[in-house]
Specification:
Glycosyltransferase, transferase, 624 residues, Spore Coat Polysaccharide Biosynthesis Protein SpsA, Chain A, 22 helices, 4 domains, transferase activity, Nucleotide-diphossugar_trans, single chain
């Protein structure tokens, strides 16, 4: 009597994992569920993911985990080692979304015994149908049908195969892990068998439809006019792994498996070519395929590089235009909000902001922390004796050890007791419903950027010097990621800790964009709350607007230096030409009646160009 153990690899599991365990647990000696480092287990939805894993444990499964996402091969190997150590004679491997028939394992063991009776002891057994469709097969051996490149899910592998061929290859990470094992097992004399009468329900990609254009419809005989062609397609990034790993296998097994290589090339060219020609997100798929081919030529293995993912994502068409559609995991309302305000020599303006915070309509608890970045105007005494001290739970924090807003905000966050941080500046003024709208949006996002208006606190001249986005439009780097200024920004404390706060090396601006980018690279979602409004104070002197614009330019160049490998695009050359022509033709030395440009506006554009040049030199990255 064979002892069979099941190994199920999971990643961000849902209810389908529990269904898979329910279907198999009564058919095998033991079940091992191996979670491949699901990020959600360390995030706000940890309870939801943990509940599914706990449900599997309550059914009798052994639930194992890996500290990080290391690929399906790594997860399977951990389960296989545990199963073999427990004395299993054969291992059934499954995906988390696969469900087998009630008599699946019994049918397989009978077939393995039949194979052993004709001298086939080293075997891999696979289902006859997948979702009711006949599984690929080719020749017969000793009267038994052989499978052609069987799927890992539903595969039963005898102990002797593992002992002779080894475990799954972890360097492939996702795709072709099963194919490589199948080819390696064949090289060691094993046979992959089709088990008659068995079926497995398994999700194969996602459905896609293509309606042929009129000239093509005439070529598709037998199809009604306008009828769509339906097929399945993988996520675009999978093309990277498929192209890379397939080429690696062709190189490795091409000499011994000429027939398999020929059939595989024809099949894969059709399936992948169809997806790139008539599937969704075709440009992105083509990019990932080319990147995978390049990686194969270089001999690269492991996880797809982050920069490749980001560049491929840039090529995907945008399906939504509203930030409300980019929603992260649901969270409960914050228990306590910490409003953090970095200030340096702001005693003459801080009361406007504190009065506005005292007028908030927000009904839940919040505290206000003043992070003093080296003030010499008596700010500490002013805060410690402020009339709103009790009402606002007002606290002064020493943040003078290093200059810069990043250090001050980090110091404020270090002293904060809240589970959500809301950042604003000392010389601005938040609207009465600012916290109410900010926290409402935060329940759907990991970080939130608010909106600004410039008409309340600024003269008409100062407003004419800078163009500001309307409240409903979020900030972003075109072709890259959305960002948000820290004069109106909120982030959950756990996400703030996950990305290690603000980078103090950003001492010339752009620290807010850097922070927002890192949140998203860490898997967080940045939202936009247009009703969380702040009245923003502009620079109202020519030296002030000049210094601010130079600083912004330097910060943008630093951002490009740090994130060009992740897909942040360089400024187009024609944009630089346009700025130069603008500065020459709108020179303030010419009469304003001719240029029709305020001096402050000209200085802002000139300073920004100078800053980008300085930043490009400083960070050795051309961003002019």
């Amino acid at each position: 009597m064979r002892t069979v153990a099941a190994v199920i690899a999971s990643f961000e599991p849902g209810p389908e994992l529990v269904k898979s365990v329910e279907a198999v647990v009564g058919q095998v000696e033991s079940v091992y569920v191996v979670d491949d480092g699901s990020p959600s287990l360390n995030g706000p939805t940890a309870d939801r993911v943990r509940a599914h894993l706990d449900a599997c444990a309550s059914l009798g499964a052994h639930v194992l985990g890996t500290p990080m996402n290391s690929g399906i091969g790594h997860a399977l190997n951990r389960g296989v080692r545990a199963a073999l150590a427990s004395g299993a004679d054969a291992i059934l491997t499954l995906d988390q979304d696969s469900v087998i028939d009630d008599d699946y394992v019994a049918s397989v063991t009978v077939h393995l015994d039949l194979a052993a009776s004709v001298g086939i002891d080293d075997a891999l057994a696979s289902p006859a149908t997948i979702n009711g469709e006949v599984a690929p097969f080719w020749f017969a051996h000793q009267g038994l049908t052989l499978a052609f490149e069987p799927l890992q899910s539903g595969l039963v592998i005898t102990r002797s195969v593992f002992e002779k061929a080894g475990l799954f290859e972890e360097g492939l990470f996702i795709d072709c892990v099963d194919t490589e094992f199948y080819l390696r097992a064949r090289a060691h004399g094993a046979h992959a068998l089709i088990v008659p009468g068995t079926d497995i329900r398994h999700r194969l990609g996602r459905p896609a439809r293509w309606t042929p254009p009129r000239p093509v419809r005439k070529l598709l005989r037998g199809r009604p006019a306008g009828a769509a062609i339906e097929f399945s397609e993988d996520a675009p990034f999978r093309h990277y792994y498929i192209a890379r790993n397939r080429l690696a296998l062709y190189r490795r097994y091409g000499g011994a498996e000429k027939l398999w290589v020929t059939a595989s090339v024809l099949k894969d060219s059709f399936v992948r070519g169809r997806a790139m020609l008539i599937g969704s997100e075709r440009v992105s798929r083509t990019y990932f395929t080319v990147a995978g081919v390049r990686a194969a030529v270089r001999g690269e293995t492991g996880r797809i590089p982050s920069r490749t993912v980001l560049r491929g994502e840039r090529l995907r068409p945008r399906r939504v235009t509203t930030p409300e559609a980019r929603v992260g995991a649901e969270r409960a309302a914050p228990e306590l909000v910490s409003v953090i305000i970095p200030v340096r020599d702001g005693v003459d303006v801080i009361d406007t902001q504190l009065d506005a915070l005292g007028a908030q309509t927000y009904q839940r608890p919040f505290e206000v922390i003043i992070a003093d970045n080296g003030s010499r105007d008596g700010l500490r005494e002013h805060i410690e004796h402020h009339p709103l001290r009790e009402r606002l739970s007002l606290a002064w924090v020493d943040a003078s050890a290093r200059g810069g807003g990043s250090f001050a905000r980090n110091a404020g966050a270090h002293a904060a007791a809240g589970d959500f941080y809301a950042f604003c500046d000392g010389d601005d003024r938040v609207y009465p419903q600012w916290l109410e709208h900010m926290t409402a949006a935060a329940m759907r996002y990991d970080a939130v950027g608010g909106a600004v208006e410039t008409h309340s606190l600024n003269s008409a001249d100062a407003q004419s010097w800078r163009d500001m986005l309307p409240p409903e439009t979020p900030y972003e780097f075109p072709g890259f990621l959305p960002v948000s200024p820290t004069c109106n920004f909120g982030v959950w404390a756990d996400m703030f800790a996950k990305v290690n706060g603000f980078d103090v090396e950003y001492d010339r601006g752009a620290e807010d964009s850097d922070f927002a980018i890192r949140v998203q690279l860490a898997g967080g979602v940045l939202g936009h709350a247009p009703q969380a409004l702040v009245a923003y104070r502009l620079r109202d002197t020519l030296p002030g607007i000049w210094s601010q614009s130079v600083m912004c330019g330097e910060g943008d160049a630093q951002l490009y230096s740090d994130y060009r490998a992740y897909g942040l695009p360089r400024r187009p050359w024609y944009g630089t030409v346009d700025v130069v022509l603008y500065l020459v033709l709108r020179n303030p030395l010419l009469p304003t009646a001719i240029t029709r440009v305020p001096t402050g506006r000209w200085l802002f554009h000139a300073g920004n160009l100078v800053g980008r040049i300085k930043g490009s030199i400083r960070h050795r990255a051309y961003y002019v």
